[in-house]
Amino acid sequence: MAPGPIRTALKVDLDKPAHEQEYLHNRWHPDIPFAAKIVPGEAVKVECIDWTGGQIKNDDSADDVKNCDLSRVHYLSGPFEIEGAEPGDILVVEIQDVQPFDERPWGFTAVFDKKNGGGFLDEHYPQAAKAIWDFEGIFCSSRHIPHVRFPGLIHPGIMGCAPSPEILAEWTRRESELVEFNTLDRVVANLPEPKNIHAGTATGDLKAKIGAEGARTIPGRPEHGGNCDIKNLSRGSKTYLPVHVPGAKFSVGDLHFSQGDGEISFCGAIEMAGIITFKFSLMKGGIENLDMKSPIFIPGPVEPQFGPGRMLTFEGFSVDENGKQHYMDVTVAYRQTCFRVFEYLKRYGYSGGEFSLPASFYKK
Amino acid sequence: MAPGPIRTALKVDLDKPAHEQEYLHNRWHPDIPFAAKIVPGEAVKVECIDWTGGQIKNDDSADDVKNCDLSRVHYLSGPFEIEGAEPGDILVVEIQDVQPFDERPWGFTAVFDKKNGGGFLDEHYPQAAKAIWDFEGIFCSSRHIPHVRFPGLIHPGIMGCAPSPEILAEWTRRESELVEFNTLDRVVANLPEPKNIHAGTATGDLKAKIGAEGARTIPGRPEHGGNCDIKNLSRGSKTYLPVHVPGAKFSVGDLHFSQGDGEISFCGAIEMAGIITFKFSLMKGGIENLDMKSPIFIPGPVEPQFGPGRMLTFEGFSVDENGKQHYMDVTVAYRQTCFRVFEYLKRYGYSGGEFSLPASFYKK
Amino acid sequence: MAPGPIRTALKVDLDKPAHEQEYLHNRWHPDIPFAAKIVPGEAVKVECIDWTGGQIKNDDSADDVKNCDLSRVHYLSGPFEIEGAEPGDILVVEIQDVQPFDERPWGFTAVFDKKNGGGFLDEHYPQAAKAIWDFEGIFCSSRHIPHVRFPGLIHPGIMGCAPSPEILAEWTRRESELVEFNTLDRVVANLPEPKNIHAGTATGDLKAKIGAEGARTIPGRPEHGGNCDIKNLSRGSKTYLPVHVPGAKFSVGDLHFSQGDGEISFCGAIEMAGIITFKFSLMKGGIENLDMKSPIFIPGPVEPQFGPGRMLTFEGFSVDENGKQHYMDVTVAYRQTCFRVFEYLKRYGYSGGEFSLPASFYKK
Amino acid sequence: MAPGPIRTALKVDLDKPAHEQEYLHNRWHPDIPFAAKIVPGEAVKVECIDWTGGQIKNDDSADDVKNCDLSRVHYLSGPFEIEGAEPGDILVVEIQDVQPFDERPWGFTAVFDKKNGGGFLDEHYPQAAKAIWDFEGIFCSSRHIPHVRFPGLIHPGIMGCAPSPEILAEWTRRESELVEFNTLDRVVANLPEPKNIHAGTATGDLKAKIGAEGARTIPGRPEHGGNCDIKNLSRGSKTYLPVHVPGAKFSVGDLHFSQGDGEISFCGAIEMAGIITFKFSLMKGGIENLDMKSPIFIPGPVEPQFGPGRMLTFEGFSVDENGKQHYMDVTVAYRQTCFRVFEYLKRYGYSGGEFSLPASFYKK
Description:
- The structure is a homotetramer.
- By secondary structure, chain A is an alpha+beta fold.
- In chain A, about 15% of the residues lie in helices and about 30% in strands.
- Chain A has five helices and 19 strands.
- Chain A has helices at about 65, 165-180, 205-215, 285-290, 330-345, and strands at about 5-10, 25, 35-40, 45-50, 75-80, 90-100, 105-110, 130-135, 140, 150, 155-160, 225, 240, 250-260, 265-270, 275-285, 295-300, 315, 360-364.
- In chain A, strands 2, 3, 5, 7, 8, 9, 10, 11, 12, 14, 15 and 19 form a twelve-stranded mixed β-sheet that branches. A six-stranded mixed β-sheet of chain A has the order 1-4-16-6-13-17, with no helix packed on it.
- In chain A, strand 9 and strand 10 form a beta hairpin.
- Strand 18 (about 315) of chain C pairs antiparallel with strand 17 (about 295-300) of chain D, so a sheet runs across the interface.
């Protein structure tokens, strides 16, 4: 009668290359074979590798960031068959807990090299940089960013159900159009690309099909969510995800110990491998009933409280560093605000290169 | 020995046209004469009219919004001489309380007509609309938006010290350039304009000079703050403002009973006239000491707490209503998210036209 | 159509002796005449004097505390006729705001002389002491307790509906019995006492009857609430009060700027005169439906947040100052904990005599 | 260079009788041998059994509660040698995390039989009762108390450093005196008692000495803390404990998934076995510097937030169930308030026997 431990629905191997692990995948596609089955109402644990699949090491060199193979990232755990889920349903995802692995009590945040990934501030900080964060219970601290310590709000960066073939086709159409008419001097979308795809247990023709059609995992997409990086989707939160294929084919990955309110380096979070405890339920026919166009989120009850006087607010203005004004340009405003925050922090002995840290922190 | 009532440093007349009141002004300029003097350490009350100067009435017609004279808005109370303030100092503004007038326990929010002001969603909601909000202590409710009621986080939308002549010249240069090179089919900045200027007690040549040079009050500007519309600058908050002229020439106005996290109509707040209680202090030489480039803010300790399950989060994606994807376009993403929220709320009987309401609310 | 100011249902005169004001009373009795009428759903303001009826002055001497006439205290505003209220109903009291009078922006806290009132620690602090607190918006500070400043959680100490004759008789029976069998060397209850009673507009035989029968206002009583001193009954709170007589005869008084979690001097709050904004509603037949035996309270959403590290907790043990252990004696434990807190605070330069301050405070 | 897992400083065996495990003990005594050593600054895990040492089973019968051997409880993990700790220091205990064992994701709360332990309400609920709680991440729910589910605030009930011989002698003197002069018809203190003592690795004469002198673990004591049952000593909290013997001899046990603000059954918490992650530091000479008489506590930043309207408050009055009034009797008031809460909850289908649940909960 007594319950045993919470069942682990999917285990990963932290010492094995991600692409050799059958229950991971790095594309969104309706035909990726199920990795495991979960019954609504059951609490289960799901293990996840970090978003680089272990490419980043706990050392003091940023060479691994500089040379990170970005075609081999965002491996997701799943997809899971949620028993009874059908297209048109809403999958309610309750996160009960998220924890690092006991044997890997650390994570990292990184500034990516302008030539490999880059990021929001790569014009100003073009070199790769890395900070390792040690986890001590709810807290983290870093030997690379002294005197900073804060409680994490641990969460998954990516959650979603597989797209239907129709939705997948629409994604490809939309993103191809964006690429086709692009006038910016940068990559604006990554289209389906067979190289280095990993589709779980799929092999042969099926794997080829998934490689040819599968959507990349970097961008979030309205029809299913995906890479949302919402920092408050932590313990006790609920996420309402539309279901588009039989069994839902839910996947999860890209765990963070903490995430800023924006991403000022390519990697705006403290990235980690870890274990997430879920409980799922279904709202049958919920998409039509709620007229749902994209996921809805409700944060949990245990967000760290910092209290008054612990949070400084800087305001953004769309005047760039050359004194040129732009019209209501959020990007310019956010970037300039980052620089003002850096100036402020420099007074405390920090240099710009360290500021891949999350927005909210407090001193030891 | 016993203190009397808190001194009111500036009184307004709610029944008199704003431009006839000597202690109001509607431009930023170093030469606007002082309206009153305040000593650091002294708690004082300052009265403010609403941002339209009383043009909007408590009735059920939006004609006053449609016909609102936008050249006669943003009248600020001040400027105040802060005793001892010199260029290079930081003025620390503590907000002790903000209250509506007893005799005007109501405010308004408005959707501006596309032909008169417009706003973020004016392509979709081109008609003027208005909601009157009745204040009941910390709560507000509206006969125009039934079943909604929430506690306000009352705050001033505009606070700042006067620019120096050099800063003013830089503003004009910057904004003139923006206008000159504008390729958008809309007004991107309002340059100095003598029409309908009000410069307090200034008359004759001085008033003409202020009219010819004075900066408009709509945009916030990094060098002094101004129209920041930060919803958390409520009771107990502290704002650190750079001082650029002798005596600081601090001004305040545009009070809000509540404000959303963004402005989806021209008037994204519940606008009100009211009384703000301040206490000022000075950090001598603070601009250099803090290497301050723009204001810094610390919220107060009495923000309303809603608790888990009372806040829904919708995610933004930069795919527009025609299914066209844009590259990392915050504006598209925010607009589309607004529409999804509207669809969600329509299920509860609301129509789009009512959604000038702030983002956070809870049901009666 | 537009609303005017919120109606003030009852005005007091801060310069007139309390017992000369017709709309105050200092006993609980069903026959005290109505002072005013309030309609459910209407927001109204009610003015209240401080609990001593103005006996304590804003000066630096505690003589007024020492000589305070305790037979002339706890004057309540009311009773109010709540339209439609009948015995068996529940009166829902929503507090929308509580504010000091503009012309009296101060309050006091006092240690009462052991020979006149005394208090929880009067064996150790037998002398009268007083601290005046100046209000600055949501904050208060005192020239008598330097370096302390904190936001208030302003609330009424006393709210209740009049007892029915049967309930009043039960109170008298109960408290007479307590007095009769008392073995402690102290006053354990104050029975009805005609001296210095004030019964609003009642005169002659009616006043005599109320004097002979009326319950004293110091103790709270389960059947109606009364003097509850719950510090969280501030803005936005709801209180559910049983109604025992037609029209409810609701009364209120004893406003506090702030109150500790316990009362370690006779006067455990920062006492003030002020104005409370109410909105009432009725749950018809609610006493039976809820099987209500005594009031129920729900705190409001704007309690000050202090954040982690701002609150020290000391633990209580029932070992007294002579090293004698008592069995699970909360009173001993609480008293000893107070002393430990005093010792702790003395390290910061405070002396015991000042510690009539509320439990939660933070440094300037 | 990379850290491995956090070191587990003490492991327990959930399947072995507590008194056979060498690193547990059930008395406070300076001579209990060290179980392990911990260096200040090091994060370590410490495993703890539940307070009954596994006597309570995950089933639907309360017979185990009825027959619980109360002479074999409160086995503590330790004592730990904290390197460098000397009498006069303060040991700062930071709790970084507390978790149940993966293989034991449940806990219990129990009403003890009036003849075996009893409790605050044993006159009214004399029968043993038990509820099993299943843990799902931060949440718990019980098949024995339907429709209740809430996030835990997991914490240890007991923490303390060993007494010096002088302090131990004072405890015995104090408690012996309490027993000697007791006039109540109940056990008021348990004096040292050799039966069923467990003193870690101590044997022979040493064990006999500890049995003859060792203080029992049920009561908290001012000189060192011990059984404090403060529900907020959860993740991120800090506890300042006086050190009385070389090496501190710190012990911990009696973990709770959640605890009420009071203990209305003998076992007022959801009891569990689990793993606590600590980090220690020392304030050398802190007892004298802080003039510390007993422990001081600072709660952590991740207490669950419930928000307004989720917490009902009932008020206590010292009138007992027979209508007899008592003078300022907190015990009577608290007991009667419990009964009123029970009556309220009965309306939702609960019976009194289930109300061993914590005070704060929210509905599924």
